Amino acid sequence: MIGRHRALALFLVAVALAPLVLPAFYVTLLNYIGLATLVALGLVLLTGVAGVVSFGQQAFVGLAAYATAALTVPMGLSPWLGLVAGLALTAAFALVLGAITLRLSGHYLSISTIAWGIALYYLFGNLPELGQYSGIDNLPPVAVAGFALESGRESYYLIWLVTAAALLAARNLLDSRTGRAIRALRFRGVMAESFGVDTAALKLLVFLYAALLAGLSGWLYAHFLRFVSPHAFGVNAGIDYLFMAVIGGASQVWGALIGASVLTVLKEWLKDLLPALFQKSGNYEIVVFGVLMTLLLHRTRDGLAPAFARLLPAGSTRARPPDAPALPRRTQPARGQPLLQLRGVQKRFGGLLAVNDMAFAMNSGEILGLIGPNGAGKSTLFNLVTGVLAADAGEIRFLGEPIERATQREIARRGIARTFQHVNLVSTMSVIENVAIGTHLRGAKGSLAAMLHADRDEERLLLAEAARQLDRVGLGEHLYEPAGSLPLGQQRIVEIARALCADPVLLLMDEPAAGLRYGEKQALAALLRKLRDEGMSILLVEHDMEFVMGLVDRLVVMDFGEKLAEGLPAEIQANPAVLEAYLGGIE
Ligand code: ADP
Ligand code: MG
Fold first, then answer.
1. Whole-structure pTM value
2. What is the pLDDT of residue 316?
3. Domains and CATH numbers, the chain
4. Where are the alpha helices (DSSP H) in 400-487?
5. What would the 3-class secondary structure string for 318-369 be?
6. What are phi and psi of 41, to 5 degrees?
7. What is the pLDDT of residue 583?
8. Rounded to whole angstroms, how far apart are CA atoms 304 and 258?
9. Which of 30, 104, 286, 473 is at a distance of 20 to 30 A from 557, taking alpha carbons?
10. Dist. CA 380–CA 560, nearest whole Å
11. Residue 374 Cβ < 6 Å to ligand 1
């Protein structure tokens, strides 16, 4: 069996030799595949990973293609200036469009992508300066170091160099601090914000990248074909690109390459085959295409990439990240300092007063238990303290400063980290990657550094920290398992490790012991005590009485959104009102 590296080397040799041995027709086909791969790659990031469905990528391809055509043909400027202008125009357009449409939720965004696609198609087709529907021809070839890339064979090398670099950069990006945050965008936005990720800005960034990749493709296309017309940038092209991303495997970088190849070849093939079959000409391929797509997606939700991956030799199993110096830590407040104070806190959901006039205070270094029957408002209170929800009234102070108006990100930065009652992990990501999200605010490297692999030093620190925290909670054996494959109880512990990675002052845990076995609960209690001994302050929502009573310093009891009692565990245990409400009168 050959190794992955050798397989890759063989593949690269084949790519380099292809235009020398293949007939021109196939070289052209390969060029189209490379161009489509770029656009599909943007969609893998945008749609597959970040969850934003766009039918309008062809508009960005067209913008850059027309920009370079309009500059190089009538004005005689260099294609390289056309590239700069094309990308600048694409970026400006994407930023404005993204700022407006990314706010729209769900289907509205996708519909708006169709709308802008159609609008640009007609704009290209109607402007006399752009040649209307007959387009612009006679574009100059791109010249590299004085050598003009006139033929398809020559363009091939430029197209595939750019495509390969884009694939590599995208892979590096996803495997980084920013990449982990991007991968959390789709289903775990609230969680990402709670660790300091600016999800709105990140979505816009991914949207921008996707647009720039499409723009790059448009520029290459225009100078390879030496001709632009609106027809290549119609809505159907946008749908094709989306198909490519989905068929290939929308959440995998290589899926873009696979999807673009399969679709481009299939289309070419059906275009010849079908008219011969039906003895008539017509766009039958679109119909056959639709059916094939449906069947394929029915069979495999993840696209073709996983099937292709199985054909490859197995990669080596990943070793533990090498140990690295600890990240700098924040100064913890002295034990016994006022830490968190709530006064008159209220939250209403329509007619339901979920939290009403809640007040309590906790000092640093203590474990405060928050208990109460289901629906008492405990999780809502957590969401108020962490900024997921805004309180309707009342005051929340953390380390003496008001935080009731602060965003999740600001609160995270001040040192509050949390776990969620409903486990909030990215299930397809490995355990260590999930936990590393907790270190987000302790790193600074952005997407550009990630793409160029210039973030490796910092990355080593962040991953070593994640591994250390996983060791600390006893999950050091599971670093590279997909988080979703662990039993639910262990997933909760993963959440604790992630919160610890934020180096918090105050740890909020929403039912961490739910789903744990007896022994695991003992271990968790021991861990929490150890954390407290190290100076950590913990606010804990828990159902399991036995677990809480032996662990916490004080208890606050909630019922129907209000505070029912507050005191030492022994006092609470003897409080008749608590027994009545919480235990339903059970002895
Ligand atoms: P607990 O965590 O104590 O079990 P919650 O804080 O989850 O309770 O819920 C308190 C009450 O608020 C419940 O009646 C719940 O149905 C309601 N509630 C919680 N979140 C929302 C929401 N986003 N919209 C409407 N009602 C909600
Ligand atoms: Mg709850």
1. 0.91
2. 57
3. 4-12+21-311 (1.10.3470), 335-415+505-587 (3.40.50.300), 425-503 (no CATH)
4. 408-414, 431-436, 447-451, 456-472
5. CCCCCCCCCCCCCCCCCCCCEEEEEEEEEEEECCEEEEEEEEEEEECCCEEE
6. -65, -40
7. 61
8. 7
9. 473
10. 12
11. yes
Given this model, what pLDDT does residue 587 score? 41
Query: Dihedrals φ, ψ of 556, to 5°?
Result: -120, 130
Q: Which residues, given as ranges, of the chain have pLDDT below 50?
A: 585-587
Does residue 557 line the site of ligand 1, with CB under 6 A? no
Residue nearest to ligand 1 atom 26, measured at CA: 349
Instruction: Please state, in angstroms and rounded to a whole number, the distance separating the CA atoms of residues 40 and 99.
Output: 22
Amino acid at 265: V
- d(CA 406, CA 390) in angstroms, rounded, equals 9
How many Å apart are CA 492 and CA 475, to the nearest integer? 11
DSSP conformation letters of 489-512: HHHHHHHHHHHHTT--SEEEEEST
C-beta of residue 175 within 8 angstroms of C-beta of residue 432: no
CA-to-CA dists, residue 36 to 40, 174, 260, 396, angstroms: 6, 20, 6, 52
C-alpha distances out from residue 213 to 74, 401, 514, Å: 26, 44, 45
Burial of residue 107 (CB within 10 Å: 0-12, 13-18, 19+) is exposed
Q: What is the pLDDT of residue 586?
A: 46
In the prediction, which pLDDT does 585 show?
47
Of all atoms in ligand 1, which is nearest to the CA of residue 376? 3
pLDDT of residue 278: 74
Q: Tokens representing 108?
A: 């509205």
How many angstroms does the Cα of residue 476 sit away from the middle of ligand 2?
28
For ligand 1, whether the C-beta of 375 sits within 6 Å is yes
Alpha-carbon span 40 to 43, nearest angstrom: 5
Residue-by-residue DSSP string for 258-324: HHHHHHHHHHHHHHHHHHHHHTS-S-HHHHHHHHHHHHHHHH-TT-SHHHHHHHSPPPPPPPPPPP-
